[in-house]
Design brief:
Blueprint (H helix, E strand, L loop, with lengths): L1 E3 L4 E3 L10 E10 L4 E10 L25 H8 L17 H12 L10 H44 L1 H9 L4 H44 L12 H27 L3 H5 L4
Antiparallel strand pairs: 1-2, 3-4
Length: about 270
């Protein structure tokens, strides 16, 4: 049996196995004469099963069942005298710190050594989260600044490019008030799709980020009870800032509408 916290289920990847059954396994074997790591096959006998809640700490090969052997048997099979990972589970949680300190004292000078507890894993994940939070905040600030500039510049530049056409409308009898109303409507309608798209992309990114954190927590063997919450406050702030930007741009456009000289515009002097 093999238990994966990622899928929250128990999988019998080697079905119908019993004690004393023989299995043919393929494993890496180090050839000392050639210095090449090869794959060999050998038969092993089933002498026991790991518990259902034995799971890997790393994110690689998490659907491959573990095979536990004595280190001497491991050396004979693979011709390799070191192991990649050992996981220890204790019934007495109070003794964990004591064992961790003993391992640290014995192996901390080895460059291949790394020892993790749930506490150290959480600390490392928190460090990653702080770095990613800074990256997200900087990216959000840059994108928000670009949105503000695009909204204001887009509305004002669009007006300036079509200024002669607006002068023609005024010369045909349209009131400046109606022109302002039309510009306000066109400006808002042209900006809304971009705002909606930005909100949708942000939600998709947040959902993917939430699922990634949930996956990493499962891989690390950490219980994850959080639920996805809609970042409604950030969305409201974004909409308010965009609305203020639109109002600022329209205030500039309204002033330019009042300053339109119909004759000069029609003569292409402005």
């Amino acid at each position: 049996k093999f238990y994966s916290k990622i899928k929250r289920g128990i999988f019998k990847l080697l079905p119908n196995q019993k004690l004393n059954d023989e299995l043919t396994i393929s494993y890496q074997y180090y050839d000392k004469d050639s210095g090449i790591v090869k794959f060999k096959k050998s038969k092993v006998r089933v002498v026991g099963f790991i518990s259902d809640n034995w799971d890997p700490i790393t994110h690689t090969e998490h659907f491959v069942p573990d095979i536990i052997t004595y280190d001497s048997i491991y050396r004979n099979l693979t011709n390799i005298s070191n192991v990649n990972e050992i996981k220890v589970e204790l019934n007495d949680k109070d003794s964990l710190e004591n064992i961790y300190n003993k391992i640290e004292t014995r192996f901390s000078s080895k460059n291949f050594y790394e020892c993790d507890t749930e506490k150290t894993i959480l600390e490392r994940l928190n460090r990653y989260e702080k770095k990613n939070k800074i990256k997200r905040e900087v990216s959000s600030a840059v994108l928000l600044s670009m949105s503000i500039v695009n909204i204001i510049a887009g509305i004002i530049l669009t007006f300036n490019l079509n200024k002669r056409g607006y002068a023609t409308m005024l010369s045909l009898g349209m009131s400046r008030r109606n022109l302002k109303r039309m510009l306000r409507k066109n400006g808002i309608l042209s900006i809304i799709p971009g705002i909606v798209l930005a909100i949708i992309v942000s939600l998709i990114y947040n959902i993917k980020w939430f699922n990634q954190v949930k996956l990493i927590a499962g891989i690390q063997g950490i219980e994850f009870k959080e639920t996805f919450s809609l970042p409604y406050m950030q969305i409201v702030i974004f909409i308010l800032i965009c609305t203020i930007s639109i109002l600022l741009a329209l205030s500039v456009v309204y002033k330019n509408v009042d300053d339109i000289d119909i004759i000069e515009c029609l003569n292409n002097k402005v």
